[in-house]
Amino acid sequence: MKRGTMSGGSSQAPVSALRASAYRIPTDAPEADGTFAWDATTLVVVEADAGGHTGIGYTYSDACIVALIQGALAACVLNHDVLDVRAHWQRLQRQVRNLGRAGLAATAISAIDCALWDLKAKLLGVPLIALLGALRSAVPVYGSGGFTTYTNQRLHEQFAGWVAHDGCRWVKMKIGSEPDKDPARVAAAHAAIGDVAGLFVDANGAFTAQQALYYAQRFAEHHVSWFEEPVSSDDEAGLRDVRGHAPAGMEIAAGEYGYTLDDFRHLLAGGCVDVLQADASRCGGITGFLQAAALCDAYHVPLSAHCAPALHLHVACAAPRLRHQEWFHDHARIEAMLFDGAPRLHDGQMKPDLSRPGCGLQFRHGDAARYLIK
Residue 332 sits in which domain range? Predict the structure, then answer.
């Protein structure tokens, strides 16, 4: 592969520009989970320039972070050497000390960090995986959708398609909007996939620990093997209780709302989860995701990458104890619509294209223009 060149042959490549833009993309049908309903998804894209190249990163957040990225956070990045991504990350973390590191600030930093890693790899003329160190050449995924707004017929079609056509070994559905209906919905989902694939459920924190344990017993009748956020991720005692009393063979998962390393440490040290989730679009980008992966390795706990499959592809290949990646319906659809190089599924896996530098993605500005939030 031809290697890129850096400006003037210098060992430094200062970031010359940082841009952010937000896009509101309608869903293809009304969607809901146990605690929220939505009809559109907001994508925030960050572009960073250096040495004649442009790196891209993104997050699924609110459009309000565009001003934060182009204002206070840009000062931490502009005119600094892009090759030292971790130094950028430390400056960004310090910059939001008085704003709060979690939530919106964390998603903004995540998008910037991903753009800088992509830019660094493009400057060096290599795929991002070459910088991160590959532990695997492909990443298994689980199909994720099954929204509580879906009819059982729509649920059946989605899950059967992921298993029969795309080769997914697991599928996940949302529960909790109308709990009394969930056992029948779970039965319908199991009928769609049989024993060919594993069945996951996600309550998005809708239940108390007592309710979660009641439904866990009902779901076990239909071979559910994964119960995600049975209670709020903030309820460490509740997660620990559910994990300690869940049916044999049913794993408890949480962590998608981890924004800092301490968020993950609390879940792991507290014995709250069988599998930790981390989301590079929320937890500090590639840098933060690698930190979460190292923490999982230290605690001997599997890691699952949450949402944004195209964003995670390269870093998921580099993460120790990575079990799988969530192929979330909304995000997989948006990434295929708006990014050249977005991964496709083959035999239930996604695989990086090593012929493309960086993260392998190119944002299609023209296709995205009609969704731009002005």
Answer: 130-363
pTM of the model: 0.95
Rounded Cα–Cα distance for residues 263 and 275 (Å): 14
**2 within a domain of the structure (yes/no):** no
Helices marked H in 55-141 — which ranges? 65-68, 85-95, 104-124, 128-132
The number of beta carbons lying within 10 Å of the beta carbon of residue 278 is: 28
Torsion of CA 112, 118, 119, 120, to 10 degrees: 110
- What is the pLDDT confidence band of residue 11, given thresholds at 50, 70 and 90? low
Report CA dihedral (74, 68, 46, 114) to the nearest 10 degrees.
80
Question: What is the Cα–Cα distance from 230 to 211, expressed in whole angstroms?
Answer: 9
By CB atoms closer than 10 A (0-12, 13-18, 19+), residue 263 is buried
What's the mean pLDDT in 138-148?
98
Place of tokens 């530098």: 357
Provide the pLDDT for residue 10: 45
Mark whether 121 and 142 lie in a shared domain.
no
